[in-house]
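Input set for joint prediction.
Command: fold jointly, output tokens.
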Amino acid sequence: MPISKEEVTKIATLSNLALTAEETGSFSVQLAAIVEYIDQLSEVDISNVQPWKHRSAGEAPTSYASREDRVEPSLGTGIALANAPDPDAGHFAVPKVIGG
Amino acid sequence: MNLTIDELHKLYASGDAKPSEITQAVLDRIEQTNDRLNTFLTINKEAALHRAAEADADIKDAVQTKPLAGIPVAVKDNMCTTGIRTTCGSRILGNYIPPYTATAVAKLEAAGAILVGKTNLDEFAMGSSNENSAFGPVRNPVNEGYVPGGSSGGSAVAVAADLSSVSLGSDTGGSIRQPASFCGVVGMKPTYGRVSRYGLVAFASSLDQIGPFGKNVKDVARTLGVIAGRDRYDSTSSNEVVPDYVNALTGDVKGLRIGVPPECFGEGLDAEVKTSVEAAIKKLEERGAEVVEITLPHSKYVVAVYYLIATAEASSNLARFDGVRYGFRAEEARTLSEMYKQSRDQGFGAEVKRRIMLGTFALSSGYYDAYYEKAQRVRQMLCNDFAEAFQKCDLIATPTAPTPAFKLGEKVNDPLAMYLDDIFTVTINLVGVPAISVPCGVSSNGLPIGLQLIGNHFDEARILNAAYAHEN
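tokens >
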């Protein structure tokens, strides 16, 4: 299946990526080749099988454990903000939201 | 320099060496080789020497009580380490210093290990050659013109080049086993849920699993025993009892039924790899194992299924990198929306963007049923195939990779060709079972070849024992 540049641009928007024109061109070609390969799945008869569902450790005994909902010590504002590109007075500062 | 755990513990027990001496020697070797091999992204020099000096005092006793006492270890740089930079091989996390430590790493340290550094990888563990790192490729120490495999290339090289005794990697579609095969070391992907993923930066959450590399099967068994087990911080980690993997290494394979699927020995398999793997299976047969033919009828589709599911999960997991809470932020953006898009475009490398795009496509309206959901159905068929195969056999033997290591740059412009190299490894993650790669030969130009042994869920001990029988 060919993937047009318009389609690539749409997927990039959904992916929150601002691609350059060069990237849009190369992804269009590369994704098309990959999707063409993936399209061989269309020959598989899937009528008698349910989609796989996430279980811990495949078929083996599961261990989805729920725990008591209890408050525990957490990082705290100082540590949580230590890696932030723009920490500001105990918050994560970001550029203008409205109109953006 | 022989850095196997038994050898080091013998030296420590006799007083012939101390952890500080071994650690210094390992750090010297890392410094001498890192410009060339590019194995480590961060060398943990001061902290390692400090910890080693502390270990010196009671090392004779510690070797009796702590399985990794005084053992130099390396960890793939997608596992969080408090206070030590964790980059995931990406520009977007180039300066990230985690406020917590991954459970698997904490368990290594609690067992006495000394962390010498964080190893290079394909960006966010996405790649099969280690050429996708934002910090440059790793070179294969066997032949520096060749790739070490990926994505845990640095962790494989750390062990292969004697820059650590054992190391940790992560395996989402073969990222431990394939580099182990390419570098001539042992590497294991445990059962999904066997090892906690807490602190492992997520790529594809239903497939990711941490596992060990070692020079030999025994070191891998010992390290797995240390990192395995339930963790309250990872709800998918299993309560299944952790057996003594080292004790399981008897070398006795009499009556063991080894399934050989013809689908993994056909077209596209390098002739020398085929010969070596068949000889390895024959060797196990001579030791009393029984070879049975099995079939994995949907093998043809595994790469397609894997690259839909892994990328779909990645597109969701990597949405968190947006320049707000940590990591790189594009400076010039004027609005929030521009800031997200520009930070991600400048912060991620080409392969990561390609996979995010493919995953977003597979999940997008109009394509979800035809791609993502269909892949999940075929994934269930693969699980059924394996369940049926394990009715007839105890282990399955295949090559780890269709070829030995390829040249640096050879496949870098052809992503699909690179993906097709994962044909024997990705299924194991889709089904959630454990598998090991052990060296089983060398090609005519001197490159290592790996045998993959696959077991049923939580059957690591049986895999390790068969690998041990092959090794000895």
